[in-house]
Amino acid sequence: MKHGLIVAVAVLGVLWAAVPAFSHHAVQAQFDFNKPLTLTGVLTRVEWVNPHSYMFLDVKDAAGKVKKWALELVGPGGLRKAGLSRIDRGGFKIGDTITVKGFASKDGSDSGFVKELKLSDGRLVTIWFGDPNAR
Amino acid sequence: MIRRFPGGRAIGAAMAAASCLLVLRLAAGRAPAAVKSAAVETPRTTEGHPVLSGVWIGVTGGAVLTAEDAGESIKVTLNARDGTPINFERDNTLLRRRDPNRPLYKPQFWEKVQQLDQNGNTEDPGYSCMPLGVPRMGPPNKIVQTPTEMIFLYQVRNTFRVIPTDGRAHTPDKDLEGTWMGESLGHWEGDTFVIDSVGFSDASWLDIAGYFHSEKMHVIERLRRQGNTLTWDVTVEDPDVLLKPWVMNPRTVRLNPDPKAVLAEDLPCQERDLAHLVTKEHH
Question: Does B10 reach chain A within 8 Å, measured CB to CB?
Answer without folding.
Answer: no
